Amino acid sequence: MARNAPGRMRTGIREMVDLQLAMAKLGFDLLATGAHAAGVIARRSAMLGAAMLQPARLADPEFVRMAAEKVEAASEAGRRAARHADKILPRSSTSTMMLAASGIALAESCLRPYHRRVRANSRRLGRRG
C-alpha cells in the first residue's frame, strides 16, 4: 500500500494543476467577454444617443437585436446548465476536486453562448464604424 502513495500524490497534484489551469482559462474568458462587452456597450450607447437626436435611426435592427440576443444567450446557457446537471450528479464517491472541476466546466459551458455573441457583436459593430 505504501508503494501506491507516491502515484496517488502525483495524480492529486496533476488534478490540482489541471483544475488551476481550467480556472485560469475561465478567468481569461470572463475577462475577454467583459472587454468585448464594454466595447459593444460603448458603440451601442453612441448609436442610441444619435438615435435620440434623429428618431428615424430608432428603426435600426441593432436595437431589436440587443434584446433578442440576450434572451437567446440566456436560453442556450440554461439548456447547457440542464444538460450538465443531467450528466454530473454528485455521488458519495465524488471527490471535492471532481466537484470543483464540474463547477468550472459548468461555468465555462454557460459563459460560451454569451462570449460567442459578444465577440461577434464587437467585430460586427467595429466594422460598422
Q: Layout of SSEs?
A:
Blueprint: H1 4-53, H2 61-87, H3 96-128
Helix pairs in contact: 1-3, 2-3
Structure description:
The protein has 129 residues and is mainly alpha-helical. The protein is 85% helix and 0% strand. The protein has three helices and no strands. It has helices at residues 4-53, 61-87, 96-128.
How do the SSEs run, as a string of H and E?
A: HHH
What separation lies between the terminal Cα atoms?
67 Å
Domains (count): 1
The helix tally amounts to 3
Radius of gyration: 21 Å
The helix-and-strand class reads mainly alpha
Biggest sheet layout: none
Give the overall silhouette: elongated
Number of strands: 0
Strand proportion? under 5%
Mean pLDDT: 86
Short description:
Helix content is 85%, strand content 0%. It has 129 residues and is an all-alpha fold.
Give the key terms.
3 helices; mainly alpha; single chain
